[in-house]
Amino acid sequence: xxxxxxxxxxxxxxxxxxxxxxxxxxxxxxxxxxxxxxxxxxxxxxxxxxxxxxxxxxxxxxxxxxxxxxxxxxxxxxxxxxxxxxxxxxxxxxxxxx
Length: 98
Fold this sequence. Notes:
- The protein is of the alpha+beta class.
- The protein is about 30% helix and about 20% strand.
- Helix 1 (about 1-20) packs across helix 2.
- The longest helix is centred in the first third of the chain and has 19 residues, at about 1-20.
- About 5% of the residues are buried.
């Protein structure tokens, strides 16, 4: 999971650098927050003002053996409603949010 997050972040950073044709840190961060994220690992998302990347989240539950219908049928995969996997902006305690 950590490696996937680093890959996603670096890919988005490089997308912002390419769009700016420069690597000024302040401008790159602003561009990263402006551009939507979209990669094969986390899908479409955004970067909030506090720097938190928001993307689709999944809820995975292991099935009971009686629920499994065949080999490798181990999980129930669902989606929590809204973006419940991430704290609301007003509860993050980030100094960037005024």
